[in-house]
Design brief:
The complex is a heterodimer of chains A (347) and B (282).
Chain A (H helix, E strand, L loop, with lengths): L2 H17 L4 H13 L1 H34 L2 E3 L5 E3 L3 H8 L1 H32 L5 H9 L6 H12 L4 H8 L17 H26 L3 H9 L4 H29 L3 H7 L8 H10 L4 H29 L7 H18 L1
Chain B lengths: L2 H36 L3 H6 L13 H9 L2 H32 L5 H11 L8 H10 L6 H9 L3 H12 L3 H9 L4 H12 L1 H17 L2 H6 L9 H4 L11 H21 L1 H14 L1
Helix pairs in contact in B: 1-14, 3-14, 4-7, 4-8, 4-11, 8-11, 8-15, 9-10, 11-15
Chain lengths: 347, 282
């Protein structure tokens, strides 16, 4: 019997209880009997185990989302009057110069995350082969990921201060202090400085993911490949890259949504001053500093739309473009090698 | 090996270790400079270069001051309470939901799975505008329980890790227990939960890291900093009166990082495998 029918059954039972007091005992008796049966127990556990997580999901994810949709059509603050203004918030957002500038910053973060992925892939490959002190290197590269955003904010404000850590290291390398910019103030470099902190934090995490993927490649493949005279570069191109293609592409697509919602570096380091305000930070300030709740909601929904588009594109790419590579090219190669070996053995 | 191959091999090894050393240097540089500064006296900090080592590595006065002024004792206690409840709650709920979704076929199963997946697309911090109103209506602002309940909320990655795990445990195990007279609750709590240990550890690590480091929402919903300060919000104390007195700030930063470092050194393997699992399934 379906879940819906069970519910109808209970509801019917309850209604009956209210309506016909005379029939009370019979219905309660039937309800208790049903509760003791296998189907009854099944329904009860489904309801008890699911109610809390579903309630939390609705209260803290869907209800706010629906309300945000509603707010985006109003000119309103947290408290006080609100006025319906239709699509004006959306128009304001899309014609706002600051918003357009913040979307441009997304490109900085996107370039940064591709650099990050390339570095992660390089070091993951290095550390997948035998390396002296491998786990030490892995640990130190990964550790920044565990440092909280707010601690990172202080660390990098200190790091980039004029004449402090970064400048000192650069003067060790022979650069004159006068030739150096103010890393967080000069508009030419401040966004790059912020993106670098994000790369610093997340590169190690990407690397650990890639190492995990590379480790799942059949070890025999490297051996047979090197017997066939393949060098490391060949091994990388023909064994490692094909077998971790899925996770690399997934991370590339995720970095688009990540760049769109970049928030932490400017929030904790510069506070969004001097042209470092990303879309997300702009939205945060709109809501909490200027209290323009309607406009902030419209921004959030535009961001949501963009993320949705990227996600759908990702699903399509994986369904059509990558569908055959999901079956792991390295395994195909392995099978081919085995066949060839078998042939050679026969001869 | 020919000479050419040999030279190539040496070159490759040199490049490999040089690049590894370079990235390691970059990775630890911000933290090391923070440690150095945390051990300097006020005068030392004002007069010496930030990268010059401190006169004494046993000068703990900055730590004492930072601990007291940022009220870190209370911060660590609050964060510990939050961690315990959030971990127990979110892992329990995720395991319960995963059990239902993977073991029971009923109408709406697919719908509920998709509801949770779709929720991950909603940019979390963006909805805080309206979440704030809901928290306010519920009377959850400036209360520990309110913040804990909020943090327990939808943890889709844990749900997926548990579903994956349940699917690798044979259903016949449940069935034979039911035949022996076990209830569904008995199956879940006595038979399946003990088998879930590795998944529970994975989820604890992932959720533990994000809860310990969370500062945006604790800043928003635990505004009474004298009472409900957490480890990450305690650092905010340093933004105001301390300005640029980085010797105190660095000491505070180091103290918040230290627990993470200790846990990391102790369970490196679990952290790596937890991350890998969480990413692939999520």
């Amino acid at each position: 019997m379906s879940q819906g029918k069970h519910l109808a059954h209970i509801m019917g039972g309850l209604m009956g209880k209210i309506n016909t007091a005379a029939n009370k005992d019979g219905i309660i008796h039937r309800l208790l009997k049903w509760l003791r049966s296998g189907k009854g127990q099944r329904t009860v556990i489904i309801i008890t185990f699911m109610s809390v997580p579903l309630l939390l999901l609705i209260v803290f994810a869907y209800l706010p989302f629906i309300k945000m949709f509603e707010f985006s059509f109003f000119n309103m603050k947290y408290i006080g009057e609100r006025k319906f203004i239709g699509l004006d918030n959306y128009r304001d957002v899309l014609t706002d110069k600051e918003v357009m500038n913040s979307l441009k910053l997304t490109l900085y973060y996107l370039v940064g995350s591709f650099v990050q992925l390339a570095l992660a892939l390089y070091f993951a490959t290095m550390l997948s082969f035998k390396t002296k002190g491998g786990s030490f290197f892995k640990g130190t590269i990964f550790f920044p990921y565990l440092i909280s955003g707010i601690a990172m904010g202080f660390m990098f404000r200190f790091f980039y201060t004029r004449g402090f850590v970064f400048d000192t290291v650069l003067t060790w390398l022979g650069v004159e202090l006068e030739n150096l910019p103010y890393w967080l103030r000069d508009k030419g470099v401040n966004n790059m400085a912020l993106v670098a902190t994000s790369v610093w934090k997340y590169m190690g995490q990407n690397m650990v993911l890639f190492i995990g993927a590379i480790m799942s490649v059949d070890k025999d493949l490297y051996e047979s490949a090197s017997l066939d005279g393949a060098n490391r570069w060949h091994q990388f191109c023909y064994i490692i890259l094909p077998s971790i293609k899925t996770i690399v592409v997934l991370n590339m697509i995720l970095s688009i949504t990540g760049s769109l919602s970049a928030f932490e570096p400017p929030y904790v380091i510069t506070g969004g001053t001097r042209g470092t305000s990303t879309f997300f930070l702009l939205m945060h300030n709109m809501a909490h500093r200027h209290q323009k709740v309607g406009k902030a909601s419209a921004m959030a929904l535009i961001l949501f739309g963009l993320i949705l588009i990227v996600t759908i594109a990702q699903k399509l790419i994986f369904k059509y473009a990558l569908s055959d590579s999901n079956e792991d090219i390295s395994k195909k190669t392995a099978r081919m090698i085995k066949k060839q070996r078998a042939k050679e053995a026969q001869q | 090996m020919t000479i050419k191959q040999r030279l190539f091999y040496i070159l490759r090894t040199v490049i490999k270790y040089a690049s590894l050393l370079a990235i390691t240097f970059i990775s630890i540089l911000p933290t090391v400079s923070t440690v150095i500064t945390a051990f300097k006296t006020k005068e030392e900090y004002a007069t010496t270069n930030v990268m010059a080592p401190p006169r004494s590595w046993a000068y703990f006065s900055n730590f004492v001051t930072a601990w007291r002024d940022a009220n870190m004792g209370l911060a660590f206690r609050n964060t510990l309470i939050i961690l315990v409840f959030v971990l127990i709650g979110s892992i329990m709920f995720a395991a319960m939901l995963a059990y239902i979704l993977s073991r029971f076929k009923f109408h709406g199963n697919e719908v509920i799975r998709n509801l949770f997946l779709f929720a991950t697309l909603i940019p979390g911090i963006a909805t805080q505008v309206t979440v704030y109103q809901i928290m306010h209506t519920l009377g959850f602002i400036n209360t520990m329980h309110g913040y804990i309940i909020l943090m327990m909320g939808t943890d889709v990655i844990s749900i997926y890790i548990f579903i994956q795990f349940f699917e690798n445990i044979s259903v016949s195990l449940d069935e034979s227990a039911i035949i022996d007279g076990c209830t569904y609750y008995g199956v879940f709590f006595r038979i399946l939960i003990p088998l879930l240990k590795p998944a529970i550890i994975t989820c604890m690590i992932l959720k533990g890291v994000s809860t310990y480091n969370e500062y945006y929402m604790s800043n928003l919903y635990l505004q009474n900093k004298t009472k409900f300060v957490t480890v990450s919000t305690s650092l905010y104390t340093f933004t105001g009166p301390y300005g640029n007195q980085y010797n105190y700030i660095c000491a505070g930063v180091i103290m918040t990082i230290l627990p993470a470092l200790i846990i990391f050194i102790m369970c490196q393997k679990q952290i790596y495998s937890g991350l890998t699992q969480g990413a692939v399934k999520g």
